[in-house]
Amino acid sequence: MLPLSLSKNKKNNFYNLRPQPSLGIGNFMLEENQNISAIQTCRNRMIWPVIFFFLIYLIITIRVFFVCLPHGIKISLPEEDMTEHEINVQSPISRADILDRNGAIIATSLPTVNLYANPKKIQDAKEAALKLSSLFPEISYDEIYAKLTKKRSSFSMIKHDLSPAQQAKVNALGIPALEFQTSEKRVYLHNNLFAHVLGYTNIDNVGQSGIEKFMHKRLTESSKPLELTVDMGIQDTIRQELENAVEKFKAAGAAAILMDINSGEIISLVSLPDFNPNIKIPVGEKALFNFITQATYEPGSVFKTFNTALALESGKIKPTDKFDATKPVIIQKRKISDDHPKNSWLTVDEILTYSSNIGSVKMAEKVGKDGQRKFLKNLGFFEKVHDFEIPEIGRPLFQSEKDWAPITVATVSYGHGISVTPLHIITAFSALVNGGIYHNPTLIKSATPKVSKRVISEYTSEQMRQMLRNVVLYGTGKKADVAGYEVGGKTGTANKTDKGSYAKTRVTNSFVSTFPTSDPKYALLVIIDEPQGIKETWNQRAAGWNTVPTTGKIIAQIAPQLGLKANFDVETQRAHIKAVQ
Amino acid sequence: MFNTRNALNALWFTLACVVIFGCFILKNQVHDLENELAKINRNIASDMRNIHVLKAEWGRLNTPARLRKLAQEHISLNNLRAEQIINYSALPFENESSSVTVAVSDSKDLKQLVKTQR
């Protein structure tokens, strides 16, 4: 029998057991040593797998230990590192909110879901259509069935803007072909209140008019809310008073705009009739017409304000100059007379106070065509209002320079023969009373004011304020004299045109005012379209009977809201206290 | 010499294992933290959505038309009138000149004044 020995096959690197030839006793000792060495090598090599498995089990043990801990392991970061981490969570809506000047939300978007069907997955279209039509009675069975059986399509919109309750009901139907798409709906919190300022969006949230249209890019690119210059409370007060006036005077409509004369910011803009932008609006509806920005109308006597400023600013006429208003003037065979003739010579102040057409014509004639055109152009009456944030804007209508005949000079002096928008009037009027600086009107609250320019001197502006105050104290604006707020303004009653000639019974009345005249802050233009004569007004429909008292009511309410302190004479106040006692 | 080398090898191996173990733990922690962060972000997004809806509701509740209706129903306050805002100097005090017709001999006048302003 041959002894067995372990010998390493160097080539293959593993041990072979094969018979070895006997080598005697000396060889036996050597053989034994070789066996021990081989076992030792084995042991040494076994250590590594043992350590390896030991560590594996150790890791598992430690991991199990930590998993068993109630809160796992916490890595505590230094305090400053924690504060540097910014929360990067996207805004829940894709169209930014719109705020009023005090930060109150006036338009926002709410997350909703749209319901759509995958017609390829539908199993029983009739049953599904029946269930859905009972859930949404506003959509007919046939309409839903047609949508569910749409051929070669995997998307068919069923309904937009589901409420959470409706979504739950649809889920409860258990129809696998019905799916939801996240969406958002534009919501106007005040319904009609800001209709003509904000405009509205379509079903795809794309702005269709107003600020929504003009600022569409800004609203969709930044989630930061857009701040407007309008004031919710003031807007509501004015709208309510206009509604009352429309009802009282059975008018076709009314409009008002309130401007901060020192910045051009528009605090309120109302045009009636208006609409609820939350409801789908039929195109061409009269309510969509923004009277303030779109209506180009002959403003009537309101324009005498600009004619008076023109006269004073030209340097050709002094406030004390008198003009003959005893008899009508005839220009190009057309007779121009006064509605309430004074039959006397009138000063510039009296011409404005008593709203004399004859006096206005004579002043304009003295200044001349070129001076008149240049002045009106400088006040922005010959072009659209620049950079205004409502895209629906009217272009003024006026004669070209070639056709600007002497009769045009005459009629324009008292607000006929030229059509401008109420926005033009309030912007130019603000410049006349604020010290002579023309500010572009704006609806966007911004730290950087828009470009401004001087149009008349401070001295002329001061004289204008005094004269406008006199109109309210002694002229056609008496019913707007709100105690303590020194209102100054000018009325205008313009006959509407009907088939090429002026209609006697259809008028558009305006009253443009500023307050307080000692240190004016605001300008307000109130317009009532086609007011009717009522018993209270002795069947009169002139501006002094409707727009003026409406303006008075508005100023009495909004002046305290605007933080204006009533400027009472101490003795008057004491007399008032005594009277109350 | 051989034993020292083996011991060193064992030491490096052990260190490597410790580092591997450390990395493993760290990876797990990061994974946990990422999950936690995602959860927090989801919660923040959800809260922001809810806050947004609540703001809209609050705005709706504060519409002037609604507040006016509530005020008319529940309180008897009217709009402030211009003549209700008076100067301090208009208050009739006793030590003023004789031209002042109203003298405050007692607090009755002031009470009356306050009453008129209500």
Structure description:
The complex is a heterodimer of chains A (581) and B (118). With 581 residues, chain A is α+β, with helices and mostly antiparallel strands. Chain A has three domains: 4-65, no CATH class; 98-227, Penicillin-binding protein 2a (Domain 2), CATH 3.90.1310.10; 236-574, Beta-lactamase. Chain A has helices at 25-68, 79-84, 125-135, 141-148, 164-173, 195-198, 210-214, 216-221, 232-248, 291-294, 304-314, 348-353, 357-367, 369-378, 406-413, 422-433, 458-474, 543-561, 570-580, and strands at residues 4-9, 14-19, 98-99, 105-117, 156-162, 178-188, 226-227, 253-260, 266-272, 322-324, 329-331, 334-336, 345-347, 437-439, 452-454, 488-498, 501-515, 522-529. In chain A, helix 3 (125-135) packs across helix 4 and helix 11 packs parallel to helix 13 (357-367). Chain A is elongated and about 155 Å long. Mean pLDDT of chain A is 85; it is low at 1-19. Chain B folds into two domains: 1-77; 81-118, no CATH class. Chain B is built from three helices and no strands. Chain B is rod-shaped and about 115 Å long. Residues 98-106 of chain B have low confidence and may be disordered. The interface between A and B is large, with 52 and 46 residues.
